[in-house]
Design goal:
Number of helices of chain A: 13
Number of domains of chain B: 1
Helix content of chain A: 40-55%
Radius of gyration of chain B: 15 Å
Order of helices and strands of chain A: EEHEHEHHEHEEHEHHHEHEHHH
Strand content of chain B: 25-35%
Largest sheet of chain A: 8 strands, parallel, barrel
Strand content of chain A: 5-15%
Distance between the termini of chain B: 19 Å
Number of strands of chain B: 10
Order of helices and strands of chain B: EHHEHEEEEEEEEH
CATH architecture of chain B: 3-Layer(aba) Sandwich
Distance between the termini of chain A: 24 Å
Strand order of the largest sheet of chain A: 3-4-5-6-7-8-9-10
CATH superfamily of chain B: Class I glutamine amidotransferase (GATase) domain
Structural class of chain B: alpha/beta
Shape of chain B: globular
CATH class of chain B: Alpha Beta
Largest sheet of chain B: 7 strands, mixed
Number of helices of chain B: 4
Structural class of chain A: alpha/beta
Helix content of chain B: 10-25%
Shape of chain A: globular
Oligomer: heterodimer
CATH topology of chain B: Rossmann fold
C-alpha cells in the first residue's frame, strides 16, 4: 500500500513500482541459483537477477512441488550484487510474497514456474509496497494481472525448454490483441473487454497508448543471442533468460552475448559477432513432446 | 524531450554521438551501463564529448556516471568525473524505499513532483549550483552545461526541467 510519512513523501506508489521496470528496459534479467551465478550475471551486464533455488529446466526434470526459495539464499544473492534482485513466489501465495517483501527483494515474480498455491485467484498486489511482475499468454491475461496490481508484465513462453516458440506465440498474441483495439468505438471496446475478460478502462488505455500500460518483457525458452533479438524485434521491452545461460557450456560468454544481442537487436552484424564460438546451447525440448500436465504456461488464469 | 521541443535519437554506438547538440544519460543501473559502454568502446567517447562541453542531462544512474566521487558502487566503478559532487548509490535503500515527493526548484515557487527509484543520495555538492531540493537536501545540481538529477522527471509528466535543459542546449547551439 502506498505509505505516506509526515513529510509528504510516499513509498510504494504505482508510479514508483512501474518506474523501476522502466529503468530495466532494453536489458536482460537472468535466473541465478547461487551468489557466484549472480556475480557472473552482473559482470555479464544483466540489469537484474532472479534469485531461485532451481532453474526451470531442473524444476522440470526433478518434479515435486516448487516453492519460494530459502530466505538465506535470497539474502546471500542480495549481498553479492548491486543490481536489483527479484524472486519468485507461487501464484496466489500472498504469504510467500510478504516474506519476499520483508527480505527486501526489488521485484516479486508471481510465477507459473513454481507450483500454484491457488488455482482460482492470483495475489491482490495493490496492498504491497514491493512491485510485482506476472506472466501472460495474451492481452486479456496481461490486463487481468495489471488490474490486480502488477507493475510489469512478461510473456510466459514455456520455461525450462530452451525453445523460443511459445515466447513468440505469446508476444505475438499480446501484439495482436492491442492492434485489434485500434479503431474500436466505446461500445465495441466494452464487448472486447468482455470477450477477453479484462477491465474496459485498461483496454482504453492500451488503445490510447498502442501498447501495454506497463513494461513488458519476454520470458520462457530464450536460449541464444538471436532468440533474444527476435523477441526484442517482436516489440518486447527486454528479456528474461532462465535456464538458457547456466545450462549452456560457457555461461559468461553466452550471457554477455545475449546482453549484446538484446541491446543491438536490429544489428545482425553485432549479433553475428556475439554469437561466434559460444559453445553448446542448452539442449532444448520440443513442446508437443511434453505431457500436458508439464506445460507451465497453462498455470495462471 | 520531444514534448519539450527536441528531436531525439538513441546513442548506442560511437557514431551516434556525431552532431548532437545535447545528451541525456538516463536512469538504469549505473554499474551495468558503465560496463556495457566500456564493452562497446562508447565510454571514452561519451566522457570526452561531455568534457568538451556537450550539454548533458543525467538522471538517477546518469547522475552517478557524471559524478566525481561515487560510494557503494562496484569497487572499480569509474565515473566520468565531470561534476564536482559526491553521490552514494541506492542511498535511500532498496526498491521498497523508493518514493514520490514534492521538491523545491531554485527560482520556481511551484513544487515539482519528484519520483525517486533506488535513487542516489548527493552527499556533497562541491562547487555545483543546487537546482532542486527535497526537504532541504540537494537532489539536483548544475555545473556549466551539465545538469544532474537524482530523480526521474520523465516519470512525473512535468516538463519544466526538460524544458530548462532544452533551453540550455539551444543557448549553446545558437
Amino acid at each position: 500500500m502506498a505509505e505516506r510519512n509526515g513529510s509528504g513523501s510516499q513509498k510504494g506508489t504505482f508510479k514508483v513500482k512501474a518506474g523501476l521496470a522502466e529503468m530495466l528496459k532494453g536489458g536482460v534479467i537472468m535466473d541465478v541459483v547461487t551468489p557466484e551465478h549472480a556475480r557472473l550475471a552482473q559482470d555479464a551486464g544483466a540489469c537484474a537477477v532472479m534469485a531461485l533455488e532451481r532453474v526451470p529446466a531442473d524444476i522440470r526434470k526433478e518434479g515435486g512441488v516448487a516453492r519460494m526459495s530459502d530466505p538465506s539464499l535470497i539474502k546471500a544473492i542480495e549481498a553479492a550484487v548491486t543490481i536489483p534482485v527479484m524472486a519468485k513466489c507461487r501464484i496466489g501465495h500472498f504469504v510467500e510474497a510478504r516474506v519476499l517483501e520483508e527480505l527486501g527483494v526489488d521485484y516479486i515474480d508471481e510465477s507459473e514456474v513454481l507450483t500454484p498455491a491457488d488455482e482460482e485467484n492470483h495475489i491482490d498486489k495493490w496492498p504491497f509496497k514491493v512491485p510485482f511482475v506476472c506472466g501472460c499468454r495474451d492481452l486479456g491475461e496481461a490486463l487481468r494481472r495489471i488490474a490486480e496490481g502488477a507493475a510489469m508484465i512478461r510473456t510466459k513462453g514455456e520455461a525450462g525448454t530452451g525453445n523460443v516458440v511459445e515466447a513468440v506465440r505469446h508476444a505475438r498474441a499480446v501484439n495482436a490483441g492491442i492492434r485489434k483495439l485500434q479503431g474500436l468505438n466505446r461500445a465495441e471496446l466494452v464487448q472486447e473487454a468482455k470477450r477477453i475478460g479484462a477491465p474496459v478502462d485498461l483496454l482504453e488505455e492500451c488503445q490510447k497508448l498502442g501498447r501495454l500500460p506497463v513494461v513488458n518483457f519476454a520470458a520462457g525458452g530464450i536460449a541464444t543471442p538471436a532468440d533474444a533479438a527476435l523477441m526484442m524485434q517482436l516489440g518486447v521491452d527486454g528479456v528474461f533468460v532462465g535456464s538458457g545461460i547456466f545450462k549452456s557450456e560457457d555461461p559468461l560468454r553466452r550471457a554477455k552475448a545475449i546482453v549484446a544481442a538484446t541491446t543491438y537487436h536490429d544489428r545482425p552484424d553485432i549479433i553475428a559477432e556475439a554469437s561466434e564460438g559460444l559453445g553448446e546451447a542448452m539442449r532444448g525440448l520440443e513442446i508437443p513432446a511434453l505431457p500436458e500436465d508439464q506445460l507451465l504456461a497453462q498455470r495462471g488464469w | 524531450m520531444a514534448a519539450a521541443g527536441a528531436r531525439t535519437r538513441l546513442v548506442r554506438l560511437k557514431e551516434d554521438l556525431a552532431e548532437l547538440d545535447g545528451l541525456v544519460i538516463p536512469g538504469g543501473e549505473s554499474t551495468t551501463m558503465t560496463m556495457l559502454m566500456q564493452r562497446m568502446g562508447l565510454y571514452d567517447s561519451v566522457r570526452q564529448a561531455v568534457r568538451d562541453g556537450l550539454p548533458t542531462l543525467g538522471t538517477c544512474a546518469g547522475m552517478i556516471l557524471l559524478a566525481e566521487r561515487i560510494s557503494d558502487g562496484l569497487p572499480d566503478q569509474p565515473g566520468f568525473g565531470i561534476l564536482d559532487i559526491a553521490v552514494r548509490r541506492n542511498g535511500y535503500g532498496r526498491q521498497v524505499d523508493s518514493f514520490e515527493a514534492d521538491l523545491e526548484l531554485a527560482g520556481d515557487e511551484r513544487p515539482f513532483p519528484g519520483v525517486f527509484i533506488r535513487a542516489p543520495i548527493v552527499e556533497d555538492t562541491g562547487s555545483t549550483e543546487v537546482i532542486a531540493r527535497h526537504e532541504g537536501d540537494p537532489v539536483g545540481v548544475r555545473q556549466g552545461s551539465v545538469m544532474a538529477l537524482a530523480f526521474h522527471p520523465e516519470l512525473s509528466g512535468d516538463l519544466r526541467l526538460h524544458e530548462e535543459f532544452v533551453h540550455l542546449v539551444e543557448g549553446r547551439a545558437s
